[in-house]
């Protein structure tokens, strides 16, 4: 199975669904990690150009831990909008990945890049299936199931599905630790210690479903995307 996860920024997927992606990879599925924004504004005392380069390298290092492919970005931070141009670029990410399942942000997450990523993936995941919707790549005609990832700290998120990541929590941490440029930024601007929050949320979601650590998701319930088989690992 081909698994596409689309986050807003280079570290989002590791935080939200890194354990699930590691579990897929360990079970011989192909994992593609895409970020729509370059990460060029998540820092201080550095130029946006330098930060984008650093964060791109960090994303590749994290993906390498699970032998995942990296796609994106298509915009700078806070330069992502639900425009036709951005939708076309997102369509081409999906057409290049040819996924059997897609993960992306919840529509009610905490900031614009996350919310717009969710909207773009919703729009593009159908548009990508239409042969006469012309982009630089041919259509991927399967209408792909979509799962929304947990929100930051689980605020306002009601899961429909869980993945037991007890055996992958350390891989999830290692993946996130590749994003060294973000630790001071998150602790200073966002006021949280990222590894502590990562572990706390995974333990909380594990408590809900009877395991030690888990990641939570909500299935997009719409016609054409529903399947009888379980797609989560």
Give a short overview:
The protein has helices at residues 12-26, 48-64, 84-97, 112-127, 169-177, 183-190, 194-209; strands spanning 2-7, 30-35, 69-71, 101-104, 146-149, 161-164, 214-219. The chain is α/β, with parallel strands linked by helices. The protein has one domain (2-219): Rossmann fold (3-Layer(aba) Sandwich), CATH 3.40.50.10320.
Report on the structure:
By secondary structure, this protein is of the alpha/beta class. It is built from seven helices and seven strands. It has one domain: LmbE-like (Rossmann fold). It has a seven-stranded mixed beta sheet with strand order 3-2-1-4-5-7-6, sandwiched between helices. β4 (101-104), α4 and β5 form a beta-alpha-beta unit.
CATH topology assignment: Rossmann fold
Terminal CA distance reads 11 Å
What proportion strand? 5-15%
Which whole number gives the mean pLDDT?
Answer: 96
Name the helicity range.
40-55%
- Overall shape: it is globular
Number of strands: 7
Order of helices and strands: EHEHEHEHEEHHHE
Strand order of the largest sheet: 3-2-1-4-5-7-6
Task: Give the number of helices.
Answer: 7
Please identify which CATH superfamily we are dealing with: LmbE-like
CATH top-level class = Alpha Beta
Number of domain units: 1
Uncertain residue ranges = none
Name the structural class.
Answer: alpha/beta
Radius of gyration: 17 Å
CATH architecture, by name, is 3-Layer(aba) Sandwich
The largest β sheet comes out as: 7 strands, mixed
